[in-house]
Design brief:
heterodimer; A: alpha/beta; 6-stranded parallel beta barrel; B: 415 residues; 2 domains; 10-stranded mixed sheet
Chain lengths: 480, 415
């Protein structure tokens, strides 16, 4: 019991809340063309990339910050942010892990992400992003043998410009919404994955994001291309130090699946959620979009959202190819003063397309949870089906849970089914568990895990265990 | 449009005996409307039905001035046969007849309330338009303990003598303690291309029961908007049934505030659409106190290039523990051009609640058709049988058997 208590006490506070004291290079504060040129310059980008950024910035200038979402937040001063921050030691890229700043290695060790390849993490290749730059990518050789490209996107721009040029912005164009456009203008780093035709990626690919410097926005961009008949499973994890001010994280993720390809994208998001009174925390405004471009392609999003002060994201699938499949599995947990407005968009364009949405929301404390989703079956998407299920669980009388689905059916041969329920853990369920010797907290943990099981099953093994623990931790102190 | 509005407004005020203050209020409403215009797609509540565009495409320029000085002839052939009922008859937006012949005269009071204006939460620029142009507004008060013996039918009729393109109506109802009102709204239009803008306000006191049936059955080329605001006290019950079928465009909005404990609200609707029709039901049930209940069932059958929209919202306030809210919308699309859009929304701030919604849309079940055909029915017969059964489900929810039969006959559903 003592041990368990100790463990709980350890976990109760955000355990990734430390910051690393490391020397940084930063772009001048503020957002203007010079800063964009600075970023482009420091990354030694070709001219077309700078053009891409400036085009996005032109568009950004006329856009207004959207305000339709449920969680309101104080106005962000975009001129008061640093748009580029990198550890100084990264200026001249280290050739190997041995040259990496030991402080960085230590940080990742603390986070439980071993960058040394000998400390194998069950064969997962990791790309670690620290503030604005990617610091290390593991298992490169093994992947290269199969023709797989897995590298920071800044490297891909140098080494594989033809691929980047072709696909970057093809799913999230520079003319998209406010935060996506901001990202297009100032994105600093992120991961690039290309799986060649017919290759089944032998290991899980993973990116680990960490915001360290204060007053920095993190704008990473991930681009994953699965060529014909290939398969890849990709994981994403994130943490940030505890700080009093709110920090902005506006990432763009683009997935492209060609004929018969499959992409599985899993996220465990655990940004710093702010303290018990709702002070500080990350604003997580992310644009994630997948394009099932080819026939029989499949994109599957799985997310466990436990962190961030405000989460605002809708991983979407555009089902363009015939017979393509889109899936979305989500657990969103909010506690204390956290707010989440999350869901998905399934846009059916091709024939015989299928989509499935399973969303589980749990709100506790004084938090607010919204599921917002769109299912749009166009008139050409013959014989398509969608199934949506969103369940919410409320714990405590001060929290809110909302469901806002938009359902559009323009094809008589297609079927849409949508179900949603909202309830609390029933007294009977609790009583049953307690009768069998569980204490109230364990009982709630058990019931919540059962509630989330459908989604947790979708996660790769190592992540599932972590996520299950995370679910428990996020709800600590909400029972009683 | 602005000059037209201003001109028609000046004309209509001239004929009214209003105090200076009332004129000021009406002017203020007019200015509000001019400022905002007709609701359009940019407004969240009108996302699926851009009224501004619909009016432009179907009617073109509107005119607003209605000469209320001369009477219209009441066409008695529109009256419902075989059901004894009280009547209120609107012809071209003017009240021509109020007749409570089956009721005790001292139990119902009709009060002129033309000077008051609508102030609803959740409303839009159309309430400003309504306020600016309504001429006469009555409040019908059903006194304590009185239960109307016969239903009241409100006939909304228009004919070719109509003055303006736009008609604004308003009625208020107050149901005192333990009273009961059964109300049928029957739409019967022979005019073309008009925009009807109707506002009802109901106040239900303790134990009061309101049953409102809105029947838009007859083919017409008009555009209609109807807004019902229902405030409910302790133990009161409201039942709303909507048959949405005849008009070119019809948007029904029901806004229910469950203010008293054990109050309950039922909203049921049927869309049966063909051609280019575009109909919408938007219902908002606000559970504001504990132990309240709501139930909503909407079914649609859509043929040709018709379009139906259902926006339903269950709002549960943080005080409203033990709420029971349920919402289901189902649609059958018969034609590849038809379209069904739904936005079933839950907004919940209390934890001890049971709320759920479901929405499904798709084609007729081929297996069911096969089953029926293998038993000797033709394809057409099987199809009709299935559609009948599908819609009957909602009609069966009508609690008043007299009216249930009337409506069944009207839409030709056989058992």
């Amino acid at each position: 019991m003592d041990n368990r208590q100790k463990e709980i006490n350890n976990l109760k506070d955000y355990k990734y809340g430390f910051s690393t004291d490391i020397e940084n290079i930063q772009a001048p504060k503020g957002l203007n063309e010079d800063v964009i040129k600075f970023i482009s310059n420091i990354k030694k980008e070709p001219a077309w990339m700078l053009e891409f950024r400036l085009k996005a910035f032109e568009r950004f200038k006329v856009l207004k910050e959207p305000d339709w979402q449920k969680p309101k937040f104080p106005k962000i001063d975009y001129q008061d942010l640093y748009y580029y921050s990198a550890p100084k030691s990264m200026k001249d890229k280290p050739k190997s892990l041995d040259e990496l700043d030991p402080k960085l290695l230590e940080t990742y060790k603390k986070l439980g992400i071993p960058l040394q390849e000998q400390a194998r993490l069950n064969g997962i290749a990791v790309d670690a992003v620290f503030d604005s730059v990617s610091v290390a990518t593991t298992f490169k050789d093994e992947l290269t043998k199969q023709g797989i490209i897995f590298c920071p996107i800044s490297e891909a721009i140098q080494n594989h410009p033809e691929l980047v040029k072709k696909y970057l912005g093809s799913v999230i164009p520079t003319s998209d919404h406010f935060f996506a456009t901001l990202n297009s203008a100032v994105f600093t780093d992120g991961s690039f994955v290309y799986i060649p035709e017919g290759v089944r990626c032998p290991m899980e690919l993973s990116t680990y994001f960490r915001i360290n410097a204060s007053n920095t926005g993190q704008f990473e961009r991930t681009l994953i291309i699965a060529d014909k008949g290939s398969y890849v499973s990709y994981l994403e994890g994130c943490t940030a130090p505890m700080r009093d001010e709110n920090q902005l994280h506006a990432a763009n993720v683009e997935l492209i699946a060609l004929d018969d390809a499959e992409i599985k994208y899993s996220t465990v998001q655990n940004w710093y959620p702010g303290d018990k009174d709702g002070k500080g925390g990350i604003y997580n405004f992310v644009t994630k979009r997948g394009l099932c471009k080819g026939k029989n392609s499949k994109i599957s999003w799985t997310q466990v959202e436990t962190g961030s002060a405000i989460t605002w994201k809708y991983p979407s699938c555009i089902l363009k190819g015939d017979n393509s499949v889109g899936e979305f599995y989500s657990i969103a947990i909010t506690n204390n003063h956290q707010k989440a407005d999350t869901g998905t968009k399934m846009i059916h364009l091709g024939k015989n397309t299928k989509s499935k949405i399973i969303s589980k929301g749990i709100s506790a404390g004084s938090s607010d949870m919204t599921y917002r989703g769109l299912v749009d079956i166009s008139s050409k998407a013959k014989n398509s089906t969608n199934y949506t299920q969103c369940d919410s669980l409320l714990m405590g009388s001060k929290c809110g849970a909302h469901t806002v689905p938009y359902i559009k059916n323009k094809n008589s041969e297609s079927n849409i089914a949508h179900e949603a329920t909202t309830s609390k853990i029933s007294e009977e369920q609790l009583h049953y568990c307690q009768q069998r010797g569980l204490n109230p907290e364990e009982a709630v943990g058990l019931i919540v895990n059962g509630f989330c099981k459908e989604v947790l099953q979708q996660l790769p093994m190592e992540f599932a265990v972590e996520a299950q623990k995370l679910v428990g931790i996020s709800l600590e102190g909400s029972v009683g | 449009m602005k000059e037209q509005l201003q001109k028609d407004f000046d004309n209509s005020i001239k004929n009214l005996s209003l105090s200076q203050k009332d004129i000021e209020i009406k002017k203020f409403c007019l200015e509000n409307f001019i400022d905002k215009g007709f609701p359009n797609r940019k407004e969240e509540d009108w996302k699926f039905s851009d009224l501004n565009q619909i009016i432009k495409n179907n009617i073109g320029e509107l005119s607003f001035y209605n000469d209320q000085t001369s009477t219209n002839k009441v066409d008695t052939s529109v009256f419902v046969d075989g059901l004894e009922h009280n009547k209120i008859v609107f012809v071209n937006g003017r009240i021509e007849k109020i007749d409570f012949e089956y009721e005790k005269k001292d139990q119902i009071e009709i009060i002129d309330q033309s000077e008051t204006i609508n102030e609803f939460k959740n409303s839009n620029s159309l309430s400003d338009l309504n306020n600016a142009f309504t001429n006469k507004c009555f409040k019908i008060l059903v006194k304590k303990g009185y239960q109307l013996a016969k239903p009241l039918i409100i006939y909304h009729t228009t004919n070719s003598k109509i003055w303006s393109k736009n008609i604004n109506l308003r009625l208020n109802f107050e149901l005192d303690k333990d009273s009961l009102l059964r109300l049928i709204d029957l739409f019967n239009d022979t005019s073309e291309k008009n925009f009807l803008n109707i506002f009802y306000n109901f106040q239900l006191k303790e134990n009061a029961v309101l049953k409102n049936y809105k029947v838009d059955k007859f083919e017409n080329k008009n555009i209609k908007y109807s807004f019902n605001n229902i405030d409910q006290d302790k133990n009161s019950i409201s039942e709303t049934f909507i048959l949405s079928s005849g008009s070119n465009f019809f948007k029904n909005e029901i806004n229910c505030n469950l203010n008293g404990v054990y109050a309950s609200a039922f909203v049921n609707g049927v869309f049966s659409l063909n051609n280019h029709k575009h109909h919408e039901i938007r219902s908002i049930v606000n559970h504001l106190t504990e132990n309240t209940k709501s139930y909503q069932l909407i079914k649609s059958v859509l043929d040709d290039s018709s379009k139906a929209v259902y926006q339903g919202k269950i709002f549960v306030n943080s005080d409203a523990q033990k709420t029971d809210g349920y919402q289901l919308s189902r649609a059958i699309l018969l034609n590849k051009e038809s379209e069904f859009n739904a936005k079933p929304e839950l907004e919940i701030y209390a934890d001890d609640v049971k709320c759920s919604h479901g929405s499904a849309s798709g084609s007729l079940n081929e297996d069911s058709i096969f089953y029926l055909m293998s038993r000797g029915l033709s394809y057409q017969q099987s199809r009709e049988l299935l559609i009948n059964g599908f819609l009957l489900d909602v009609v069966e929810k009508i609690t008043d058997s007299e009216i249930k039969n009337l409506i069944k006959n009207m839409i030709g559903i056989k058992e």
